[in-house]
Design goal:
Blueprint: E1 13-16, H1 17-36, E2 46-49, E3 55-58, H2 61-67, H3 73-89, H4 93-112, H5 117-136, H6 146-157, H7 164-181, E4 194-200, E5 208-210, E6 212-215, E7 227-236, H8 256-279, E8 284-287, H9 293-301, E9 305-307, H10 312-322, E10 326-327, E11 339-349, E12 352-358, E13 366-372, H11 375-398, E14 401-403, H12 407-419, H13 427-448, H14 453-467, E15 471-475, E16 478-482, E17 490-492, H15 493-511, E18 515-518
Parallel strand pairs: 4-13, 7-8, 7-10, 8-9
Antiparallel strand pairs: 1-18, 2-3, 5-13, 6-12, 7-11, 11-12, 14-17, 15-16
Helix pairs in contact: 1-3, 1-4, 2-3, 3-4, 3-15, 4-13, 4-15, 5-12, 5-13, 5-15, 6-7, 6-11, 7-11, 8-9, 12-13, 12-14, 13-14
Bound molecules: adenosine-5'-diphosphate and magnesium ion.
Length: about 525
C-alpha cells in the first residue's frame, strides 16, 4: 500500500479550481459593490467607523477601501487597484474599482458556460487594446488652457460634499496652484511643490491660494513682530544658545565674582547671536533646532521674528520658497545664504497661530489653505482638493482631455461590440463581456442619479449613434442625456486610460488563479 504523501503542513487551507475562483470573484465583486453607490456627482457618502470609534465620512473610493480593513487576498488586489490609480493619476479610483468588479462578474458568467479562463484573459487583453483605441478617438481637441483645466477640476469635485460655491472657488485655486508651479517648458509638475494646509473655523468657500508656505508655527517670543514685509530670512539647522557639548567645559567657581563673570560671558554670547543675525540683515529666522528663551528675548529686542523647533519638512519647504540656504552655523553668515519673502505674517485662526510666508510672484512653492466648518468637512474637502489636483496635473501634463459623464465608456462599449466580430473564437465572448462591464460606469451614474439604468443606457446608445458623443450630464437637480463637452464635464485622458488598464490587470490576475493555498 502506498503511503499518503504530505507536501503541505497539516494546517494549510487549500481551495482549488472552481471553488477558488468563485470565492475570489465574489470577494472582488463585494469590494466593487462597496464603492459603486459613491460614483459620480450624485454618489452617496459612506460613514466608516473604526474599532476605536474614529469616524470618516467620505465619497472617495480609495479612502473607503483603505479604511475598510479588507482581509480577503483577492479583495485586497482590488484595493490595490484603487491605490495605484490614486498614486498614478490621483482620481478615478471608484471607476477603476467598479470596472474591475464588473470584469470579474462578467467573467464568471463565461467561466460558468465553460469558456476557459485563459480565453477570457486573452479576450480581455484584446478588448483593452480596442478600448484604449476608442479612448484616443474621444480626445477633445484644442489646447487645454486655464478654462479647460477649471472644467476638469470642477468635474472632479462635483458631488464631493464641498457645495457649489466652494467647488468654484476650490477649482480656481487648484488650477492657479498647478499653473504657478508647472514647468514652463515641459509642463511637468512636482507635486511636492503644492502643499495643502487645513484648518477648521471657516466655510469651505474661504479656501485660498497662498503663493508660498503656511505653517502651524508660533513666534518663539511674544514680543516679536507678527508681520514682516520684504523679509530677509535665514533657515538654521543649529540650536541657538550658548555653545556647549562639543568640548566638555567645566567651570571651577570659587567666588561670587567668578560666577557673575561666567554668567555674563554666557549672556554676552547669547546677545552676540542676536547681534550677528541682525548685522547680517536678517528679519526672520526659521530654526529647526531649539532657540533658548533668553536668545529668543534678545532676538525680539532686535526686532527679529523667529520660529524655534520647526519641523524638518517645514524648514525644507521654507528654504525652497524663500531661496534661503540651510545653515549649520551662523558664524560666517553671508548675504548669499539668506532668502527673501514678500511678506511673513502670523495670524490667529481657530485659536492657534498660523504663519503665512508669501514669496514673490514666481514662488515655486504654493499652499492651498483649505477651510471647513468641522473636522469632517475639512477632511472631505481636502480629499476633493487632492482629487482635483490629481486631474488638473494629469490634464495639464499631457494636455489631453475626454468628455466625462460616461461618454467615453459608451463609446468604448460601442467600439467593442462592433469590433468583437474581428476577434475570433471564444475570445469574442470575452470582448463582449468587457463591453458589458464598461457599461457599468454610465449605468451606475444613471442609477445614482435616480434614473432607470436600462432606459438610460438605451437612450445613451441612441444619442451616441446619432451625435457621436453622449453622457449622463448631471447639473444640480437636472439630469440630461447630452454631449458632456457642452456642459463642461470632462476628465483627463490619463484617468480613463489608467482605470481601464489597472482594472483589467487586477481582474485578469484574479481570474488566472485556480488554487489558493493559505498558511494557517
Ligand atoms: P472616481 O473616484 O472614479 O473619480 P467620482 O465619484 O469622482 O469617482 O465620479 C467620476 C465620474 O463622474 C466620472 O465618470 C465623471 O466623468 C463623472 N462626472 C463628473 N461630473 C459629472 C457631471 N456633472 N455629470 C455627470 N457625470 C459627471
Ligand atoms: Mg473623481
Amino acid at each position: 500500500m502506498q503511503q499518503p504523501l504530505y507536501v503541505l503542513a497539516e494546517s494549510t487551507q487549500r481551495t482549488s479550481g472552481a471553488d477558488a475562483r468563485r470565492s475570489n470573484v465574489a470577494a472582488g465583486r463585494a469590494v466593487a459593490n462597496a464603492v459603486r453607490t459613491t460614483l459620480g456627482p450624485r454618489g452617496m457618502d459612506k460613514m466608516l467607523v473604526d474599532s476605536s470609534g474614529g469616524v470618516v465620512v467620505t465619497n472617495d473610493g480609495a479612502t473607503i477601501l483603505k479604511e475598510m480593513d479588507i482581509e480577503h487576498p483577492a479583495a485586497q488586489m482590488l484595493v490595490e487597484v484603487a491605490e495605484s490609480q490614486e498614486a498614478e493619476v490621483g482620481d478615478g479610483t471608484t471607476t477603476a474599482a467598479v470596472l474591475a468588479g464588473e470584469l470579474l462578474a462578467r467573467a464568471e458568467d463565461l467561466l460558468d458556460d465553460d469558456v476557459h479562463a485563459t480565453a477570457v484573459v486573452e479576450g480581455y487583453h484584446e478588448a483593452l487594446r480596442l478600448a484604449l483605441d476608442a479612448v484616443d478617438g474621444m480626445l477633445v481637441g484644442g489646447e487645454v488652457d486655464r478654462e479647460a483645466l477649471l472644467t476638469v477640476a470642477e468635474s472632479a469635485m462635483t458631488g464631493k460634499g464641498t457645495g457649489d460655491i466652494a467647488t468654484g472657488v476650490l477649482a480656481g485655486i487648484v488650477v492657479d496652484a498647478v499653473l504657478q508651479v508647472a514647468d514652463d517648458d515641459d509642463r511637468r509638475v512636482n507635486r511636492d511643490d503644492i502643499r495643502v494646509f487645513t484648518r477648521t473655523g471657516a466655510s469651505a468657500a474661504a479656501a485660498e491660494l497662498v503663493r508660498g508656505v503656511v505653517f502651524e508655527e508660533e513666534p518663539a517670543n511674544d514680543n516679536m513682530p507678527r508681520s514682516v514685509e520684504e523679509a530677509t530670512v535665514a533657515v538654521l539647522d543649529t540650536k541657538l544658545d550658548v555653545r556647549s557639548g562639543e568640548v566638555d567645559t567645566e567651570y571651577t567657581i570659587t567666588s561670587v565674582d567668578q560666577l557673575d563673570a561666567a554668567l555674563s560671558a554666557e549672556d554676552a554670547e547669547r546677545r552676540t547671536i542676536a547681534e550677528t543675525l541682525s548685522a547680517a540683515g536678517v528679519d526672520v529666522v526659521f530654526c529647526s533646532k531649539k532657540i533658548s528663551d533668553p536668545v529668543a528675548a534678545y532676538l525680539a529686542d532686535a526686532g527679529i521674528l523667529a520660529f524655534s523647533n520647526v519641523k524638518a519638512s517645514e524648514a525644507r519647504a521654507f528654504a525652497r520658497s524663500t531661496g534661503a540656504r540651510r545653515l549649520g552655523t551662523i558664524d560666517d553668515i553671508e548675504a548669499s545664504d539668506l532668502g527673501t519673502a514678500a511678506s511673513i505674517r502670523v495670524e490667529k485662526h481657530a485659536g492657534d497661530d498660523v504663519t503665512f510666508v508669501e514669496g514673490n510672484d514666481d514662488s515655486r512653492t504654493v499652499t492651498l489653505y483649505v477651510r471647513g466648518s468641522t473636522d469632517h468637512v475639512v477632511d472631505e474637502t481636502e480629499r476633493a482638493v487632492d482629487d482635483a489636483l490629481g486631474v488638473v496635473v494629469a490634464a495639464h501634463e499631457d494636455g489631453e482631455i475626454v468628455p466625462g459623464a460616461g461618454a467615453v465608456e459608451v463609446a468604448i462599449a460601442d467600439r467593442l461590440r462592433s469590433g468583437a466580430n474581428a476577434v475570433t473564437g471564444r475570445k469574442a465572448l470575452a470582448v463582449e463581456a468587457f463591453a458589458d462591464a464598461v457599461d457599468a460606469v454610465p449605468r451606475t451614474l444613471a442609477e445614482n442619479a435616480g434614473l432607470d439604468p436600462i432606459d438610460a443606457l438605451v437612450d445613451l446608445r441612441a444619442h451616441h449613434d446619432s451625435e457621436g458623443v453622449a453622457g449622463i450630464v448631471i447639473d444640480g437637480p437636472s439630469v440630461a442625456i447630452t454631449d458632456p463637452r457642452d456642459e463642461h464635464v470632462v476628465d483627463p485622458v490619463a484617468v480613463k486610460r489608467e482605470a481601464l488598464e489597472s482594472a483589467t490587470e487586477a481582474a485578469t490576475m484574479i481570474l488566472r488563479i485556480d488554487d489558493v493555498i493559505a498558511a494557517n
